[in-house]
Amino acid sequence: MTANYSLYIHFPWCVRKCPYCDFNSHEKPNGIPEHDYISALLADLDQDLLRNFVASSTMEVGSIFMGGGTPSLFSPKGIDYLLDQIRQRVNLATKIEVTMEVNPGSISPGSYENHLSKSLISKSGETEPLAEEKLAGYREAGVNRLSLGVQSFDASQLKNLGRIHSPESAIRTYQLARAAGFSNINIDLMHGLPSQDLTQAMNDLQHAIDLQPEHISWYQLTIEPNTVFYKQPPSLPNEDALWEIYEAGLSLLEKNDFSRYEVSAFSRPSFRSKHNLNYWSFGNYLGIGAGAHGKHRQGKAFSRSTKTRLPADYLASPNAKYSLVPSSDLLLEYLMNTMRLVDGFSYQQFEENTGLSRTALRPFIERAKTRSMITERGDGIQPSSLGLQFLNELLLLV
After folding, report:
1. Calpha distance 361→340 (Å, rounded)
2. Which of 41, 50, 64, 187 would suit a FRET pair with 204, their CA atoms being 20 to 30 Å apart?
């Protein structure tokens, strides 16, 4: 029997660390050890396959997501080699989705850091290709979906957020991606930015809509521990302003035919992210790269993998820690993912994906229904609009 999997690949380097970012990313503006890191990624994948599978023929990968950090610091040749080696190790689905996160500042001219275009040099010493050549190279390598980290189209907000690109370079990157043949593009956009009002937030969102991408990820800026913003908090909109922005944004997206299918994910028909849907549906996934995580089910047991975080340590030895998920944690872990989905889940899916009986859900369902945070239908449950807006509070009812 073939098991379906996703593969996440983490690229840990950025030109500059953003003050809001709590991901495993490390500043390295003057070149990256591309060859060595790709070798480590492949050794990492081999280790995961050896541990989790009798043979790679027992699995099929339906999606690959290259995130970071800034994957687009890596050359098209490097990405091509990496994807080719992955194809030799695992079975890829016929219509596989291969996503790469792209920072416009690593692609297009017009960034706030004028030295970028000449500083991005791999260990091999090869100079950076032109922007259009780079995007075309990714497309030829097998990348068929881009996720552009725009965050805002307001120049002052980009500076507030520590981004290295300008509004113009974000738009130019999008145009070049279209010219390179990409027909599936996501735009990442934040709201609730420092001192942002309703008009500014809607202007940002309208800019993204006007570009006509297939997918928009629209999410609120949150202050996370271990970030610069946590130590030096910016002045953010108050709760009333945030609620006004949220409601107006949902309405604007709906009016422009972007269907909401997850808390912060909106897509045109047939362009939902396969990779993220697998996460949110509690599917199996492998995670390779510094700080990457994975989840694997074998029988009734669930295991998680965690890779060493520091790039230097990972390059020395891409070791992984494996641990079993306690059965007492399964209910919460399942709901943490599936309650992000507008459609929720069926009871059959719950039982198949966790091995638990649907009766384990009853206490949560009754508490959540009392607060109008979920809707129970004949075959399952889904979060209400209130539950989606206050997801953390909903999960406290587990």
Report:
1. 16
2. 64
